[in-house]
Specification:
This protein has 155 residues and is α+β, with helices and mostly antiparallel strands. 33% of the residues lie in helices and 17% in strands. It contains six helices and six strands; from the N terminus they run H-H-E-H-E-E-H-E-H-E-E-H. The protein has helices spanning 5-12, 17-20, 34-44, 65-74, 106-113, 143-152; strands spanning 27-28, 48-52, 59-64, 88-89, 126-130, 137-142.
Length: 155
């Protein structure tokens, strides 16, 4: 069931992604070892790491840590493999991505998580938060972050 905009407005009361206080993004490079990326994610309790180009720092994709653990368990990848073997790449051509910035209203973020505007491939687990020009990755917001925000916000 899709909530009406007025329900979202009541739930979030004008809050934006910045109000979630997302932790700084932790990025890894495609050539780093999976063991190193995994250790960094565990140390910070992150469920997703962005993967950026070594040369340009352009966003290439991400590592979903629960999925990575499953791949390791199945033997599809090993800890001494490079991140590029396990990363999920962003499709560059023919796909329009929703820009999520610190100023994005939380109702838009929730709509994105449910597969709305440019979450067209279905429900999304996380959003990469960038500056308005998509030049810098500022953080990662998850559905869990949004749920925690609603729980801790007074009614």
């Amino acid at each position: 069931m899709v909530q009406s905009t007025s329900t979202w407005a009541q739930k979030y009361r004008g809050a934006t992604v910045e109000d979630l206080d997302p932790p700084p993004a932790l990025s890894t490079k495609p050539t780093e070892l999976i063991s190193y990326a995994l250790m960094n994610a565990y140390e910070r309790d992150y469920s997703h790491l962005t993967v950026v180009s070594e040369d340009t720092r352009a966003l290439l994709g991400y590592l979903n840590i629960p999925r990575l653990r499953q791949l390791l368990k199945e033997g599809a990848v090993g800890e001494t493999d490079h991140v590029e073997k396990a990363m999920q790449r962003f499709q560059r051509s023919g796909k329009v991505y929703k820009v999520i910035t610190m100023d994005t209203p939380l109702e838009e973020l929730e709509f994105f998580f449910t597969g709305g505007t440019s979450g067209s491939s279905g429900p999304q687990e996380f959003a990469v938060v960038t500056d308005g020009n998509r030049r810098f990755v500022l953080g990662v917001a998850t559905k869990g972050d949004l749920e925690q925000f609603v729980k801790r916000r007074p009614a």
